[in-house]
Amino acid sequence: MEQKEVRALLEQVSSGELDIDEAMLKLKEAPFEDLGFAKPDYHRALRQGIGEVIYGAGKTPEQIHDIVASMVQQGQKSILITRMSSEAAEAVEQDFIIKYDKYSRIGLVGEIPEPDGIGKVVVAAAGTSDLPVAEEAAQTAECFGNEVIRLYDVGVAGLHRLLAHREEIMTARVIVAVAGMEGALASVIGGLADCPVIAVPTSVGYGASFGGVSALLAMLNSCASGVSVVNIDNGFGAGYLASMINHMEGKR
Q1: Among 194, 182, 188, which residue's Cα sits nearest to residue 226?
Q2: Which candidate, 154, 239, 155, places its Cα nearest to that of 198?
C-alpha cells in the first residue's frame, strides 16, 4: 500500500465512507511474505514512498519471477528490477508484461507513472562507455515519476559539448553526473549548477583507473560544493536519490 492510498483510506474514514474496522483490516495486511528464499517487503512504499525494488544480480530467473508474482498479487503497480539478465526477463515475461532494456539491464513490470516531481532530473554521462550506468540512473528516475533530460557524451575531453547545455544544467532540480577515467565531469558540473549533483563513478578506464576507484576518489575529493558521491557503477542509487530530492518540498 502506497502513502497516497493510505491518505485516501483515512479520508474515507473521516468522511464516513469507510468504518474503522474495515480500515484496520486493510492496514493489518502482512507487511512481508516469507517465500523461503526471499521476504518481499509490501510496506516499503508506505514507509518510504517508493515500493521495494528487486536487485536481480545473483538471483535465478525463477526466483525473480516468484518475487514479482508476490508483489503483483499484493497490488504493487510498478515493479523495478535492476541488474536483470535476459533469461530472467524471459521467465517473468511468461506471466507478466515486462519492459526490459538489455543495455541497462533494467526491467519494469507495470506502468511508468506520470512525472510528478518538482522539476527536472538531468543525467549527464561523460562518454558512450558510461551509458549503461547512466541509463540505469535515468530509467530508475523515470520509473519513480520524474522528467529526465539526458546529456550524453559531454565529457571534459571536449568541454564545449557540455557548455552547449548550460541552460539544462542551470535549470535542473538535481543532476546525476556519470563518469569514469578521472571522473572530472562531476566537479565541472558542480561548478556550474545551483542544485545538488550526484556523482556516479564508473569502472570505465585503463589500468590505472583501478576499476573505477580513481574516479571514485576524484569525485570524493571534488572542490565543487554540493557534490555527493554514490558507489562505483551505482546508477540505481543515484537515480533513486535524485527522485527523492526532486519530490522533496519544504518538509519540517
Answers
A1: 194
A2: 239
- C-alpha cell belonging to residue 201: 563513478
Find residue 148's DSSP bridge partners: 121
61 and 100, same domain (yes or no): yes
What are the Cα distances from residue 159, in Å, to 48, 153, 164, 169, 176? 38, 10, 9, 14, 17
Same domain membership, residue 82 and residue 164 = no
> Residue 141: which domain range?
120-246
Vertex 58: Cα angle to 53 and 60 (nearest 5):
90
Whether 23 is covered by a domain: the verdict is no
Domains in the chain, number: 2
Q: Do 1 and 46 touch, CB atoms closer than 8 A? A: yes
Q: Is residue 154 part of a domain?
A: yes
Name residue 214's amino acid.
S
Say if residue 85 is in the same domain as residue 131: no
Are the beta carbons of 78 and 110 closer than 8 angstroms? Answer: yes
- pLDDT for residue 24 is more than 80: no
Give φ, ψ of 190 to 5 degrees.
-60, -30
- pLDDT tens by residue, 224-235: 999 999 999 999
In angstroms, the CA 86 to CA 104 distance is 11
Cβ proximity of 124 and 154 under 8 Å: yes
Question: Has residue 93 been placed in a domain?
Answer: yes
Looking at the structure, tell me whether residues 106 and 210 fall in a common domain.
no
In a domain, 18, yes or no: no
Quote the pTM value.
0.84
